[in-house]
Amino acid sequence: MTDAYFTKNNIDDEIIDNEQFEDMRDLLEEDFSDLIQTYIIDSQQRIDTLRMALADNDNANGFEAAHALKGASANLGATQLVRLGDQLQEACREHQISQQADIIEQTATALQRVKQEITLRLEP
């Protein structure tokens, strides 16, 4: 996916890009629910890692966690998390994780929204 794919309107209007989500569901079929569970657990761990990196002023681990979160979120079409992960990556690249407490908490909130949206989409 290109950066143009994640336009501001697309990010603001959608929690999850429907086409990307459905493409992944079609591709994985019965393994999709396992992917979702793994994604949610891993994403929460990455947010915990970001919080620890903030406390320790550890830009390297912050960058790795943000990069992993961004990539996994892109696979599912979680556009807000992709945008926030990208912002955190850039901040860590510039050695500014110590100034990212608000963005990290926005990321945690966005993950909660993604979880809620996925739950709604997977209900029978």
Automatic annotation (TrEMBL):
Keywords: Phosphoprotein, Two-component regulatory system. SUPFAM superfamilies: Histidine-containing phosphotransfer domain, HPT domain (SSF47226). Residues 28-121 form the HPt domain. GO terms for molecular function: protein kinase activity. The modification Phosphohistidine is found at residue 67. Pfam families: Hpt. This is Hpt domain-containing protein. It comes from Psychrobacter frigidicola.
